[in-house]
Amino acid sequence: MHNNEMMEKEEIFSKVLRAGRRTYFFDVRATKADDYYLTITESKKFTNDDGSFHYKKHKIYLYKEDFSEFNDILKEMTDYIINEKGDEVISERHQKDFKKEYDTPASPASETKTETSETSSAESRFTDIDFDDI
Q: What are the angstrom distances between the C-alpha of 72 and each of 9, 77, 87, 99?
């Protein structure tokens, strides 16, 4: 019965956010004094060459006395990123067909910012291909 009591305490309230090969788990848990705290777990799936896979997990424990300051700093940092870089993901590594090219020179930053305002956000996510290069 002791194990059932422990399981009930661990299943107080949970949410899951799936983001590609990363999954975030938000779990409300209870301390021994029956107060609540939050655990945030990032679980990332890695596939081995033989097709098998494993997960790497990272966990943050967040207690009530830190909620206010944590929320303030998290909001400040996420707002900064969005204000500086926008909310569109610009990393090529997030594309499913990404292949790192070591000998290709990087294009100047000025070329990436010459899009006209008429270009829709959906169109800006596509890559231009010159079929003469194939």
A: 28, 9, 19, 38
Which one-letter DSSP state was computed for residue 94?
Answer: G
- Residues 1-49 pLDDT 10s: 455 455 445 679 999 999 888 999 999 999 999 999 999 999 998 888 8
Q: How far apart are CA 27 and CA 63, in angstroms?
A: 12
d(CA 60, CA 42): 9
Edge-to-edge order in the sheet of strand 36-47: 13-19, 22-30, 36-47, 53-63
| Cα angle 62, 68, 69; round to 5 | 85
Per the listing, tokens 């943050």 go with 60
> What is the C-alpha end-to-end distance of the chain, expressed in Å?
67
